[in-house]
Amino acid sequence: MSRSLPFLPSLSSLSSRSDRDTARPLSRRALLGGSLAAASGLLLTACGSGGGSNSNAASGNSIDSTGQSPYQGTYLPRTFDKPDVTLTDSSGKPFNLAQRTAGKAMMLYFGYTHCPDVCPTTMGDLAVAVSKLTKAQQQQVDVVFISTDPGVDTPSTLRSWLDSFNPAFIGLTGDIGTIIKAAASVGVYVAAPKAGQEPVHGAEVLGFFPSDNKAHVLYTSGAAWGNYAHDIPLLIKSVTA
Length: 241
Hints:
Blueprint lengths: L16 E3 L2 E3 L9 H7 L33 E8 L4 E4 L4 E3 H4 L4 E7 L6 H14 L3 H4 L2 E7 L7 H9 L6 E4 L2 H10 L19 E4 L5 E6 L5 H12 L5
Parallel strand pairs: 6-7, 7-8
Antiparallel strand pairs: 1-2, 3-10, 4-5, 4-8, 6-9, 9-10
């Protein structure tokens, strides 16, 4: 199911992704953040149950790199400031995102722990990518997961879920209005959960430079762990395209 936003052209359905060598069908939970599509000039789409596997999935690569960019993700023509927002971390303490992740590369994703498809596959790919980095590189990047269903995703729920991927991953929850504003500030569409309906969240990962704390690279749900593993060392060095 695609969603049309009033300030953007309609979005059609998102390219399916592969779980290494098997297809990863995405449900309507993976609705995209429209303003990122406008900012990057991409046509982002949401897909339902169908979709074939990607021929590069076994090697962990699924984004076709074009142009002169050294990144396998999409190098954005405009940047997004890191949200200066205070939420609650998985230990139940206040966490200012901009301050606590300053000086590090950051991979930012909005989702929810009971999502059956795109959220766990995305976080799983990020976990594999981080495991491929050197120990020094791992210390220079933060992976941040912000819940779009904070009524369900308590701090302890976030910690238990993220620990299954990487105990170093940062989980944040809090007021849904604050989360919606934080997401909108980086072009990701998030809506307040409604009873009996699936939470709505963007399917994008944003890569931030440590040098300016801005998002420079976009990964859609077609990204695989190899794309992240290739790009994170470049993000750590704030390599420009």
